[in-house]
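Sequence only, no structure available. Ideas?
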Amino acid sequence: MIEASTEPKDPTLQGKVNSTRVLAAAMLGTTIEWYDFFIYGTAAALIFAHVFFPSSDPATGTLTAFAAFGAGFIMRPLGAVIIGHLGDKYGRRPMLVATVLLMGGATVAIGILPSYAAIGIWAPSLLVLLRLLQGFAAGGEWGGAALMAIEHAPGHRRTFYGAFTQAAVPIAYLLSAAVFYVLQGSLDRQALFAWGWRVPFLLSIVVVAIAVFVRSGVAESPEFAAKSKKAEKPPLLQVLTKYPRTVALTIGLTIVTSTDFYLGQVFLLSYATANAGMSASSMLLVTIMGSAVNAGMTFVAAHLADRIGNQTVFYVGVTGLALLAFPTYLIVNTGSFAAILAVRMLGNAFNAAAYAPIATLLAGAFSVKVRYTGISLSYQAAAILGGGFAPFIAQALLTSTGTWMAVAGYSVALCVISLVSMSLLGKASKENRDQPVLPAVA
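Reply:
I predicted one. Tokens follow.
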């Protein structure tokens, strides 16, 4: 009879396996979550006005489709508060499984939803409901995934671990844009509107199953497991009463990356096609390649941040975005594909430098007892104030002033807000009575 080996397992090897699974869980799950969130936006621009919101005026149908798109942003703070509360109370891991199941279920349901021609008003009504569920899930996803990675990380690698969650956002946008790019090139208009648009939504079935499997096997965050189990006030109440200044500053810090992302990927796409004679396919290709640069540079910036400090890398990124604001529109107005591609790649590199340290900076500003709620609320509030309204504000500025310079000035103003918020965040963190486990500012 052969007995099982009683030799102790190599703890270093076990640690590496667990770290790999943690990073895979953070990156894969968040990529799927944001892929699901982004493909709705692409479909809203190209498909949904015809399938779910028919109107004698095409512009009205498109406007209605985008209104439903915005509904997802409205739900994100609610998801941040509720899922963050549960994550601070019961743990990060169960919430991460729940969010990916909720997001994936809503996305697949959109993929099989009958059209307006089939079920009438129920079609747009159900679409909006599913979009609300997507927004709710997205509100709780980023904070939990970021904390799962950061709280498992060695002290000298926190920002690099957090980068796996940060890079998932541009990767998700790249995938969503690439899928529709392929569909548009391989299907005629009739097939695309009849069934082709459903393919990106239904693809979520397989990847969601993989994400659930990976996340279910991840150990709970060590910092959460070690926290005091004594009864506490609700996390949201603690955040609002003990960290009001920190919440304001972390929203201000985060708003620039969210705004720059949606200006570059949404507004600039519209501006270049309407004012610089660029084709939609050319600009879509620019956004795809820019997203790839953003994802890659996120890891580079995170590695540097762990070596020279989060603040330094953040300052470089935001300052670069401010300096590039006016030149970007000058170059876009030339209508040169090569020049536009170059300036957008540079812009995405600066965005990555600003975005890479944010997860660690936000996590370090809140106590572990309320961290899920705190960083989720700040991040999602910034997403609404920045990303959610940025294309609308930019278009309104362009229309009212007649010049792109107003839009560039808007970008610079937000950069200034984020730079000031970053400089004040360290002081606010030092004033907290309950110091975080993570360093507040590195």
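Residues 11-46 form the longest helix (36 residues).
Hope that gets you unstuck.
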